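Hey all, sorry for the wall of text incoming. These are the two entities for the joint prediction.
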Amino acid sequence: MKNISGAEAVIRSLISEGVDVLFGYPGGAIMPVYDELYKFEKEINHILVRHEQGATHAAQGYARSSGKVGVAIATSGPGATNLVTGIADAQIDSTPMVCITGQVATYLLGSDAFQETDIIGISTPVTKWNYQITKASEIAEIFAKAFFIAKSGRPGPVLIDITKDAQFEMVDNFKYKKCNKVRSYISIPETDSKSISDAAALINKSKKPFIVWGQGVILGNAEKEFTEFIDKSGIPSAWTILGLSAIPTDHPLNVGMLGMHGNYGPNKLTNECDLLIAIGMRFDDRVTGDLKTYARQAKIIHFEIDPAEINKNVKVDVPVLGDVKKTLKKILPKIIKKNHSSWIEKFRELNKIEFKKVIDTEYNKTSGGLSMAEVIKSINQNTNGESILVTDVGQHQMVACRYTKFNKSKSNITSGGLGTMGFALPAALGAKIGDQKREVIAVIGDGGFQMTIQELGTIFQTKAAVKIIILNNNFLGMVRQWQQLFFEKRYASTEMINPDFVAIAKGYFIESSKVSIRENLNKEIIKMLNHDGPYLLEVIIEKEENVFPMIPTGSSVADIRLE
Amino acid sequence: MNNTNYTISIYTENNVGLLNRISAIFLKRHININSITCSESEISNVYRFIIVVNVNDLQILKLVRQIEKQIEVIAAFFHTDDETIFLETALYKVKSKSLFEERQIQNIIKESRANMVTVKPDFFVIEKTGWRDETEDLYQKLKPYGLLQFVRSGRISVSKKSMEISKFLK
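and here's what came out:
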């Protein structure tokens, strides 16, 4: 293509990568690209967020519901720095994302020009890769590389910074060629066939094997291979918070959620299994608790795509490197079909204790203030596990993740690793745009909601039919819980005097209602789900509810508390 | 766990910002870099960083894996002192007056097998290449005579065993 501007080259590169939606915010240093977006509005739908952080979370939500690369775009300086939280979130949760930032003209670099900031320097520790383009001729190659890096191997965020002069500069021979190899980058490590047979041998002789799996199963599109593997091996399996929805909640071998607020059985029995098989997960401290006492009795197998994760937190006996879709396929014929029914029964027994002590009282509550679990119960009853759950961070997140029923993969979108309050509202918008056919329900606390509340404006403008549930306890609930348990109830700065959320939603012309009475809850949920368009439901919940079970920080998984 | 001196050798592409990306890995883990050098390697346009750190055997494994994970890092290796041939270079700038007035200085230079790089009317510069204790020894000996300037390079080293990077460059 002859004589096109760098800005047009940017748009043509995006189109070549199949990008049809951008989340962004314009500004001085990115204006040439926006000018091209005006011309290409039929090809690319630009969604104008209300703050650049919202653009990154929306791109993350989009990536996680669609399986494609999410793209966020912003100007230089504050536009760029506002992206940082979302980039860090995408990095730690392995979300494929490309961020594009404008930059001051090349001759101004380093002069402290208006809205100049070193976004390459700032974003380096939280990006998989980043690059500053100063010549229009670099655009095609760098964009191709960026998309390849963002989505290949263990996915992650990439940032491309483009100086304003490079956007104006003309390119003579624009030609876009997709990238599938970077010589210094091994996207998927080679699988040692011995590791497969060693793992199979351990699995076949194990009496009490236990599978813990994470988002790797979803990112690797390995849901089918994973299900075949557990079905044949008959091994009880537990999901991490990011592994949620990879298989249906009701799968007979699913024994629940791991981690600080996970289920009783899988946490306790981590320290009783004789073989721990980790699949596409990274032994986060919220999953392992105290490492010195974590699964010490067990042999450990780790299926993982990222060699840097092997032995990072937990010493493993057999690492199985590679793409989990392929490694699970390879190991399947080597596995003896088994049925570990008496061992699985142990999980069921412990989970029964949890049901009696925790679940029954909050999920089937009949008196007193509304519990968070009841709200999820009502959602479950009315959506049949078909909707996408988007959560923010805190108590509501733990409760929603514990109780929501899933039937389909890619149905759970949350900020797991970084724990970013304010994630849910923009992520829900992105998730809806990423998969328009599905119902998207955002469950958000009153604290986190107010961190990115401005994105109601974006939801209103785009008419994205996101259902928003605010679980309002007028507290930063998780911090308050810790204050109650570990700081002798000194509730320092956790009580919130909140605005009228219904009125705010109405101010954005979003249908809205509020419920605080048990009898009306289900009715209100149904009304929300039946509404054609976005809807906000504020639910007033019990003020001082605690989330249990709980593994206190630094404790062993076996010391999980039920009260 | 005991800390050891490790020499990390990193082969990289020649890109702006890569030093920042590599040093950020040490910063994130609160690990101090003892010395760092970078130059073009035996392969044209492939650069080689040599970083010396004092860490334990688990830390070094994790550090090198994180470094290797960076997109533009071709390969990274680590070695103990026994596994490498390593040197540092030091320059010493001394007042010329003391060279003539203090006879002892000439003996020191001779014994240390240092080289005279330049002699000017008001100062002279000597160079010593060797191990840390050798350059340090000369520093201590010259110090009483008034060093105008002293500088020591980071470590450069080659490994005794080969580091295969050509397979990564296919």
